[in-house]
Design goal:
The chain is an alpha/beta fold. Helix content is 38%, strand content 23%. Bound molecules: nicotinamide-adenine-dinucleotide.
Protein backbone atom coordinates (compact mmCIF):
# COMPACT_ATOMS: atom_id res chain seq x y z
CA UNK A 1 0.00 0.00 0.00
CA UNK A 2 1.28 3.48 -0.85
CA UNK A 3 1.70 6.59 1.25
CA UNK A 4 -1.33 8.06 2.95
CA UNK A 5 -3.19 10.94 1.35
CA UNK A 6 -5.78 13.53 2.25
CA UNK A 7 -9.02 12.12 0.77
CA UNK A 8 -10.48 14.39 -1.91
CA UNK A 9 -13.72 12.63 -2.58
CA UNK A 10 -16.04 12.20 -5.55
CA UNK A 11 -19.36 10.30 -5.39
CA UNK A 12 -20.98 8.54 -8.36
CA UNK A 13 -24.76 8.25 -7.92
CA UNK A 14 -26.80 10.58 -5.72
CA UNK A 15 -29.59 8.19 -4.74
CA UNK A 16 -30.24 6.53 -1.38
CA UNK A 17 -26.65 5.37 -0.85
CA UNK A 18 -24.91 8.35 -2.45
CA UNK A 19 -26.89 10.57 -0.07
CA UNK A 20 -26.23 8.35 2.95
CA UNK A 21 -22.49 8.26 2.34
CA UNK A 22 -22.45 11.99 1.59
CA UNK A 23 -23.97 12.70 5.02
CA UNK A 24 -21.55 10.38 6.82
CA UNK A 25 -18.56 11.85 4.99
CA UNK A 26 -19.79 15.34 5.89
CA UNK A 27 -19.99 14.30 9.56
CA UNK A 28 -16.43 12.92 9.50
CA UNK A 29 -15.06 16.08 7.86
CA UNK A 30 -17.07 18.55 9.95
CA UNK A 31 -15.97 16.97 13.24
CA UNK A 32 -12.35 16.65 12.20
CA UNK A 33 -12.47 12.84 12.38
CA UNK A 34 -10.91 12.82 8.93
CA UNK A 35 -8.97 15.59 7.21
CA UNK A 36 -10.30 15.71 3.67
CA UNK A 37 -12.76 17.29 1.28
CA UNK A 38 -15.96 16.29 -0.53
CA UNK A 39 -15.36 17.68 -4.01
CA UNK A 40 -17.54 16.20 -6.71
CA UNK A 41 -20.60 14.29 -7.84
CA UNK A 42 -21.50 12.41 -11.01
CA UNK A 43 -25.24 11.83 -11.30
CA UNK A 44 -27.32 11.02 -14.36
CA UNK A 45 -30.52 12.71 -13.15
CA UNK A 46 -30.27 16.53 -13.53
CA UNK A 47 -32.66 17.42 -10.70
CA UNK A 48 -30.98 15.10 -8.23
CA UNK A 49 -27.58 16.29 -9.37
CA UNK A 50 -28.37 19.96 -8.84
CA UNK A 51 -30.11 19.64 -5.48
CA UNK A 52 -27.36 17.37 -4.09
CA UNK A 53 -24.60 19.65 -5.34
CA UNK A 54 -26.27 22.70 -3.79
CA UNK A 55 -26.89 20.97 -0.44
CA UNK A 56 -23.34 19.61 -0.24
CA UNK A 57 -21.62 22.73 -1.64
CA UNK A 58 -19.72 20.79 -4.27
CA UNK A 59 -17.19 22.41 -6.57
CA UNK A 60 -17.44 19.83 -9.38
CA UNK A 61 -20.63 18.30 -10.82
CA UNK A 62 -21.11 16.20 -13.94
CA UNK A 63 -23.43 13.69 -15.56
CA UNK A 64 -20.43 11.65 -16.74
CA UNK A 65 -18.92 9.32 -14.12
CA UNK A 66 -15.76 8.85 -16.20
CA UNK A 67 -15.17 12.60 -16.11
CA UNK A 68 -15.36 12.45 -12.31
CA UNK A 69 -12.96 9.51 -12.18
CA UNK A 70 -10.48 11.43 -14.38
CA UNK A 71 -10.76 14.67 -12.36
CA UNK A 72 -7.23 15.50 -11.16
CA UNK A 73 -8.52 17.02 -7.90
CA UNK A 74 -10.28 13.79 -6.87
CA UNK A 75 -8.25 10.92 -5.40
CA UNK A 76 -11.03 8.90 -3.72
CA UNK A 77 -14.19 7.62 -5.48
CA UNK A 78 -17.44 6.20 -4.10
CA UNK A 79 -19.51 4.07 -6.51
CA UNK A 80 -23.21 4.27 -5.51
CA UNK A 81 -24.97 3.49 -8.79
CA UNK A 82 -27.22 0.53 -9.59
CA UNK A 83 -25.17 -2.67 -9.55
CA UNK A 84 -25.03 -3.06 -13.35
CA UNK A 85 -22.50 -0.20 -13.57
CA UNK A 86 -20.22 -1.15 -10.66
CA UNK A 87 -17.73 -3.28 -12.55
CA UNK A 88 -16.92 -0.95 -15.44
CA UNK A 89 -16.71 2.07 -13.15
CA UNK A 90 -14.56 0.22 -10.62
CA UNK A 91 -12.12 -0.92 -13.30
CA UNK A 92 -11.81 2.70 -14.47
CA UNK A 93 -11.12 3.87 -10.89
CA UNK A 94 -8.47 1.14 -10.50
CA UNK A 95 -6.87 2.17 -13.81
CA UNK A 96 -6.75 5.76 -12.53
CA UNK A 97 -5.03 4.53 -9.33
CA UNK A 98 -7.56 6.17 -6.99
CA UNK A 99 -8.92 4.90 -3.68
CA UNK A 100 -12.24 3.14 -4.16
CA UNK A 101 -15.34 2.47 -2.10
CA UNK A 102 -17.85 0.35 -4.02
CA UNK A 103 -21.32 -0.45 -2.78
CA UNK A 104 -22.40 -4.08 -2.53
CA UNK A 105 -23.04 -6.25 -4.42
CA UNK A 106 -19.75 -5.67 -6.21
CA UNK A 107 -21.18 -7.18 -9.40
CA UNK A 108 -23.72 -9.63 -10.78
CA UNK A 109 -21.54 -12.68 -10.11
CA UNK A 110 -18.34 -13.89 -8.46
CA UNK A 111 -16.37 -13.92 -11.72
CA UNK A 112 -16.92 -10.20 -12.28
CA UNK A 113 -16.37 -9.46 -8.59
CA UNK A 114 -13.03 -11.35 -8.78
CA UNK A 115 -11.92 -9.23 -11.72
CA UNK A 116 -12.60 -6.11 -9.62
CA UNK A 117 -10.65 -7.55 -6.70
CA UNK A 118 -7.73 -8.42 -8.98
CA UNK A 119 -7.70 -4.98 -10.61
CA UNK A 120 -7.76 -3.26 -7.21
CA UNK A 121 -4.94 -5.48 -5.93
CA UNK A 122 -2.83 -4.89 -9.07
CA UNK A 123 -3.37 -1.13 -8.78
CA UNK A 124 -2.34 -1.21 -5.10
CA UNK A 125 -5.23 1.06 -4.14
CA UNK A 126 -7.14 1.22 -0.86
CA UNK A 127 -10.50 -0.44 -1.54
CA UNK A 128 -13.56 -1.26 0.55
CA UNK A 129 -16.93 -2.87 -0.21
CA UNK A 130 -20.21 -1.65 1.28
CA UNK A 131 -20.87 -4.75 3.41
CA UNK A 132 -22.13 -2.42 6.08
CA UNK A 133 -23.43 -5.11 8.43
CA UNK A 134 -19.80 -5.67 9.40
CA UNK A 135 -20.21 -2.40 11.33
CA UNK A 136 -23.42 -3.41 13.13
CA UNK A 137 -23.04 -3.73 16.93
CA UNK A 138 -25.53 -6.60 17.27
CA UNK A 139 -23.88 -8.56 14.47
CA UNK A 140 -20.40 -7.94 15.91
CA UNK A 141 -21.34 -8.72 19.51
CA UNK A 142 -23.10 -11.93 18.43
CA UNK A 143 -19.89 -13.01 16.65
CA UNK A 144 -17.91 -12.34 19.81
CA UNK A 145 -20.36 -14.32 21.97
CA UNK A 146 -20.07 -17.30 19.61
CA UNK A 147 -16.30 -17.27 20.09
CA UNK A 148 -16.72 -17.77 23.83
CA UNK A 149 -15.57 -21.33 24.53
CA UNK A 150 -18.28 -21.79 27.18
CA UNK A 151 -20.93 -21.77 24.40
CA UNK A 152 -19.45 -24.90 22.83
CA UNK A 153 -19.34 -25.37 19.07
CA UNK A 154 -21.89 -23.44 16.97
CA UNK A 155 -24.25 -26.08 15.55
CA UNK A 156 -26.89 -24.21 13.60
CA UNK A 157 -28.59 -20.90 12.90
CA UNK A 158 -31.87 -19.77 11.46
CA UNK A 159 -31.60 -16.39 9.75
CA UNK A 160 -34.43 -14.55 8.01
CA UNK A 161 -34.26 -11.17 6.34
CA UNK A 162 -37.25 -9.41 4.91
CA UNK A 163 -38.17 -6.08 3.40
CA UNK A 164 -40.82 -4.84 0.99
CA UNK A 165 -40.03 -5.18 -2.69
CA UNK A 166 -37.67 -2.20 -2.98
CA UNK A 167 -39.17 -0.43 -5.99
CA UNK A 168 -41.55 1.69 -3.90
CA UNK A 169 -41.77 3.53 -0.58
CA UNK A 170 -38.52 5.18 0.44
CA UNK A 171 -36.80 3.65 -2.60
CA UNK A 172 -37.24 6.45 -5.08
CA UNK A 173 -36.19 4.24 -7.99
CA UNK A 174 -37.41 1.10 -9.72
CA UNK A 175 -34.20 -0.46 -11.07
CA UNK A 176 -34.43 -3.36 -8.59
CA UNK A 177 -37.34 -4.66 -10.67
CA UNK A 178 -35.20 -4.85 -13.82
CA UNK A 179 -32.85 -7.83 -14.05
CA UNK A 180 -30.57 -5.96 -16.45
CA UNK A 181 -29.79 -3.39 -13.74
CA UNK A 182 -30.02 -5.46 -10.55
CA UNK A 183 -28.68 -8.81 -11.83
CA UNK A 184 -30.99 -10.95 -9.65
CA UNK A 185 -33.31 -10.49 -6.67
CA UNK A 186 -33.37 -10.45 -2.91
CA UNK A 187 -30.49 -12.93 -2.39
CA UNK A 188 -27.91 -10.99 -4.41
CA UNK A 189 -29.24 -7.50 -3.78
CA UNK A 190 -30.11 -7.71 -0.09
CA UNK A 191 -29.04 -11.00 1.45
CA UNK A 192 -25.42 -10.88 0.31
CA UNK A 193 -25.05 -9.07 3.66
CA UNK A 194 -26.51 -12.11 5.46
CA UNK A 195 -24.33 -14.58 3.60
CA UNK A 196 -21.30 -12.53 4.58
CA UNK A 197 -22.44 -12.40 8.25
CA UNK A 198 -22.97 -16.18 8.30
CA UNK A 199 -19.53 -16.79 6.77
CA UNK A 200 -18.04 -14.55 9.47
CA UNK A 201 -19.82 -16.70 12.13
CA UNK A 202 -19.37 -20.21 10.71
CA UNK A 203 -16.44 -20.08 8.25
CA UNK A 204 -16.21 -21.65 4.81
CA UNK A 205 -19.03 -23.54 3.10
CA UNK A 206 -18.97 -27.18 2.08
CA UNK A 207 -22.30 -27.49 0.25
CA UNK A 208 -25.46 -25.48 -0.39
CA UNK A 209 -29.02 -26.27 -1.41
CA UNK A 210 -31.19 -23.38 -2.52
CA UNK A 211 -34.70 -22.68 -3.80
CA UNK A 212 -35.89 -19.39 -5.28
CA UNK A 213 -39.37 -18.10 -6.16
CA UNK A 214 -40.84 -15.19 -8.13
CA UNK A 215 -44.16 -14.38 -6.44
CA UNK A 216 -44.29 -10.90 -7.95
CA UNK A 217 -43.50 -12.11 -11.46
CA UNK A 218 -40.42 -9.93 -12.12
CA UNK A 219 -38.41 -11.94 -14.59
CA UNK A 220 -34.99 -12.97 -13.23
CA UNK A 221 -35.59 -11.06 -9.96
CA UNK A 222 -36.47 -13.56 -7.25
CA UNK A 223 -38.45 -12.31 -4.27
CA UNK A 224 -37.91 -15.41 -2.13
CA UNK A 225 -34.70 -17.33 -1.57
CA UNK A 226 -34.46 -20.19 0.88
CA UNK A 227 -31.21 -22.10 1.39
CA UNK A 228 -29.63 -24.79 3.52
CA UNK A 229 -25.97 -23.99 4.07
CA UNK A 230 -23.59 -26.75 5.16
CA UNK A 231 -20.36 -25.40 6.60
CA UNK A 232 -16.99 -27.16 6.71
CA UNK A 233 -17.20 -26.92 10.53
CA UNK A 234 -20.22 -29.25 10.46
CA UNK A 235 -22.73 -26.48 11.23
CA UNK A 236 -25.91 -26.47 9.12
CA UNK A 237 -27.74 -23.16 8.70
CA UNK A 238 -31.13 -22.22 7.31
CA UNK A 239 -31.30 -18.88 5.54
CA UNK A 240 -34.37 -17.21 4.02
CA UNK A 241 -34.58 -13.86 2.27
CA UNK A 242 -37.90 -12.27 1.31
CA UNK A 243 -39.20 -9.29 -0.64
CA UNK A 244 -42.88 -9.00 0.30
CA UNK A 245 -45.52 -6.32 0.09
CA UNK A 246 -45.74 -5.19 3.73
CA UNK A 247 -45.12 -1.51 3.15
CA UNK A 248 -45.35 -0.60 6.84
CA UNK A 249 -42.42 -2.89 7.71
CA UNK A 250 -38.87 -1.64 7.62
CA UNK A 251 -36.00 -3.80 6.46
CA UNK A 252 -35.61 -6.46 9.11
CA UNK A 253 -33.39 -9.35 10.16
CA UNK A 254 -34.00 -12.20 12.60
CA UNK A 255 -31.27 -14.43 14.01
CA UNK A 256 -31.23 -17.56 16.16
CA UNK A 257 -27.92 -19.34 16.75
CA UNK A 258 -27.71 -22.62 18.67
CA UNK A 259 -24.40 -23.93 20.03
CA UNK A 260 -23.66 -27.09 22.00
CA UNK A 261 -23.93 -25.30 25.35
CA UNK A 262 -26.00 -22.23 24.67
CA UNK A 263 -28.18 -20.36 22.28
CA UNK A 264 -28.83 -16.73 21.49
CA UNK A 265 -31.32 -14.77 19.46
CA UNK A 266 -32.28 -11.26 18.37
CA UNK A 267 -34.67 -9.76 15.90
CA UNK A 268 -35.75 -6.77 13.84
CA UNK A 269 -33.24 -4.13 14.93
CA UNK A 270 -30.12 -5.21 13.04
CA UNK A 271 -28.16 -2.26 14.45
CA UNK A 272 -28.61 -2.83 18.19
CA UNK A 273 -31.34 -5.33 19.05
CA UNK A 274 -31.18 -6.72 22.58
CA UNK A 275 -29.67 -10.24 22.55
CA UNK A 276 -31.37 -13.05 24.50
CA UNK A 277 -28.95 -15.70 25.77
CA UNK A 278 -29.76 -19.08 27.27
CA UNK A 279 -26.53 -20.88 28.20
CA UNK A 280 -25.20 -23.52 30.59
CA UNK A 281 -22.61 -21.03 31.83
CA UNK A 282 -25.28 -18.91 33.57
CA UNK A 283 -27.91 -20.03 36.07
CA UNK A 284 -30.70 -18.19 34.29
CA UNK A 285 -31.51 -16.61 30.94
CA UNK A 286 -29.80 -13.30 30.22
CA UNK A 287 -30.50 -10.31 28.05
CA UNK A 288 -27.84 -7.97 26.75
CA UNK A 289 -29.71 -4.68 26.43
CA UNK A 290 -29.57 -2.54 23.34
CA UNK A 291 -27.41 0.04 25.15
CA UNK A 292 -25.00 -2.67 26.31
CA UNK A 293 -24.79 -4.11 22.80
CA UNK A 294 -23.61 -0.69 21.62
CA UNK A 295 -21.14 -0.28 24.52
CA UNK A 296 -19.64 -3.71 23.84
CA UNK A 297 -19.31 -2.84 20.18
CA UNK A 298 -17.55 0.43 20.99
CA UNK A 299 -14.97 -1.55 22.98
CA UNK A 300 -14.62 -4.35 20.42
CA UNK A 301 -14.23 -1.90 17.52
CA UNK A 302 -11.77 0.23 19.50
CA UNK A 303 -13.63 3.44 18.71
CA UNK A 304 -11.29 5.95 20.33
CA UNK A 305 -12.73 9.29 19.34
CA UNK A 306 -15.34 10.60 21.78
CA UNK A 307 -17.35 12.40 19.03
CA UNK A 308 -17.62 9.14 17.13
CA UNK A 309 -18.56 7.24 20.29
CA UNK A 310 -21.22 9.80 21.15
CA UNK A 311 -22.78 9.63 17.71
CA UNK A 312 -22.82 5.83 17.81
CA UNK A 313 -24.67 5.91 21.14
CA UNK A 314 -27.37 8.27 19.85
CA UNK A 315 -30.69 6.99 18.55
CA UNK A 316 -30.07 5.14 15.30
CA UNK A 317 -29.64 7.43 12.30
CA UNK A 318 -27.40 5.49 9.94
CA UNK A 319 -24.45 5.11 12.31
CA UNK A 320 -23.31 1.87 10.70
CA UNK A 321 -22.67 3.84 7.50
CA UNK A 322 -20.82 6.48 9.52
CA UNK A 323 -18.53 3.83 11.01
CA UNK A 324 -18.09 2.30 7.56
CA UNK A 325 -17.12 5.62 5.94
CA UNK A 326 -14.91 6.58 8.86
CA UNK A 327 -13.05 3.24 8.57
CA UNK A 328 -12.55 3.68 4.82
CA UNK A 329 -11.44 7.31 4.93
CA UNK A 330 -9.03 6.65 7.83
CA UNK A 331 -7.47 3.84 5.79
CA UNK A 332 -7.12 6.16 2.78
CA UNK A 333 -5.57 8.87 5.00
CA UNK A 334 -3.12 6.37 6.49
CA UNK A 335 -2.30 4.70 3.15
CA UNK A 336 -3.22 1.21 4.35
CA UNK A 337 -5.62 -1.55 3.37
CA UNK A 338 -9.27 -0.97 4.22
CA UNK A 339 -11.64 -3.59 5.61
CA UNK A 340 -13.80 -5.27 4.41
CA UNK A 341 -11.96 -5.26 1.11
CA UNK A 342 -13.14 -6.72 -2.19
CA UNK A 343 -11.69 -10.14 -1.31
CA UNK A 344 -14.25 -10.46 1.52
CA UNK A 345 -17.06 -9.72 -0.93
CA UNK A 346 -15.81 -12.21 -3.54
CA UNK A 347 -16.37 -15.16 -1.20
CA UNK A 348 -19.90 -13.99 -0.38
CA UNK A 349 -20.50 -13.76 -4.13
CA UNK A 350 -19.24 -17.32 -4.59
CA UNK A 351 -21.75 -18.57 -2.01
CA UNK A 352 -24.58 -16.57 -3.61
CA UNK A 353 -23.66 -17.97 -7.04
CA UNK A 354 -23.70 -21.52 -5.64
CA UNK A 355 -27.18 -21.01 -4.14
CA UNK A 356 -28.50 -19.69 -7.47
CA UNK A 357 -26.93 -22.61 -9.31
CA UNK A 358 -28.47 -25.05 -6.86
CA UNK A 359 -31.89 -23.41 -7.35
CA UNK A 360 -31.54 -23.59 -11.14
CA UNK A 361 -30.38 -27.20 -11.19
CA UNK A 362 -32.59 -28.49 -8.39
CA UNK A 363 -29.73 -30.20 -6.55
CA UNK A 364 -27.17 -29.49 -3.85
CA UNK A 365 -23.99 -27.75 -5.05
CA UNK A 366 -20.56 -28.53 -3.59
CA UNK A 367 -18.23 -25.67 -2.78
CA UNK A 368 -14.45 -26.10 -2.92
N1 LIG B 1 -24.99 -1.21 1.77
C1 LIG B 1 -26.30 -1.05 1.83
O1 LIG B 1 -26.88 -1.17 2.90
C2 LIG B 1 -27.06 -0.68 0.60
C3 LIG B 1 -28.37 -0.22 0.72
C4 LIG B 1 -29.05 0.16 -0.44
C5 LIG B 1 -28.42 0.04 -1.67
N2 LIG B 1 -27.13 -0.45 -1.75
C6 LIG B 1 -26.44 -0.56 -3.05
O2 LIG B 1 -26.06 0.76 -3.45
C7 LIG B 1 -26.20 0.89 -4.87
C8 LIG B 1 -27.13 2.07 -5.17
O3 LIG B 1 -28.40 1.81 -4.62
P1 LIG B 1 -29.41 3.01 -4.25
O4 LIG B 1 -30.46 2.44 -3.40
O5 LIG B 1 -28.64 4.18 -3.75
O6 LIG B 1 -30.00 3.34 -5.69
P2 LIG B 1 -30.74 4.69 -6.14
O7 LIG B 1 -31.56 4.34 -7.31
O8 LIG B 1 -31.37 5.34 -4.97
O9 LIG B 1 -29.53 5.62 -6.61
C9 LIG B 1 -28.73 5.35 -7.74
C10 LIG B 1 -28.37 6.68 -8.38
O10 LIG B 1 -27.40 6.44 -9.42
C11 LIG B 1 -27.74 7.29 -10.52
N3 LIG B 1 -27.11 6.70 -11.69
C12 LIG B 1 -27.50 5.61 -12.40
N4 LIG B 1 -26.60 5.36 -13.36
C13 LIG B 1 -25.65 6.30 -13.27
C14 LIG B 1 -24.47 6.57 -14.01
N5 LIG B 1 -24.07 5.77 -15.01
N6 LIG B 1 -23.72 7.63 -13.68
C15 LIG B 1 -24.10 8.44 -12.67
N7 LIG B 1 -25.21 8.23 -11.91
C16 LIG B 1 -25.97 7.17 -12.24
C17 LIG B 1 -29.26 7.28 -10.54
O11 LIG B 1 -29.78 8.39 -11.25
C18 LIG B 1 -29.58 7.36 -9.06
O12 LIG B 1 -29.68 8.69 -8.58
C19 LIG B 1 -26.70 -0.45 -5.38
O13 LIG B 1 -25.63 -1.24 -5.82
C20 LIG B 1 -27.34 -1.09 -4.15
O14 LIG B 1 -27.27 -2.49 -4.19
C21 LIG B 1 -26.46 -0.79 -0.64
Amino acid sequence: MGAGMRPRIGIIGAGVMGTTHGKSIHFCLKHGLVDGELIGLAEADPERRDSYAAAAGLSFVTDDPYELIAHPGINTVYICTPTAYHRELALAVCAAGKALFCEKPLAFNAGDASSMRDAAAAAGITHQVGLVMRFSPVVTVTRELLRDASMGRPMTAVMVDDQYFPIQGHYRSTWRGDVNLVGAGTLLEHAIHDVDILVSYFGRLRRVYGVTRHFFGKEGVEDLSSATLEFASGAVVSHTSIWHNLLHRGSSRRMLVVCEDGQLQWQDNDWAAPIDIDANAAAEKQEISSADVIERHIELAGLGDERLRASVRAEYAGQDYLLEDYAFLRAVSDGREAWPGFDVAVYAHEVVDAIYRSAREGRAVEMA
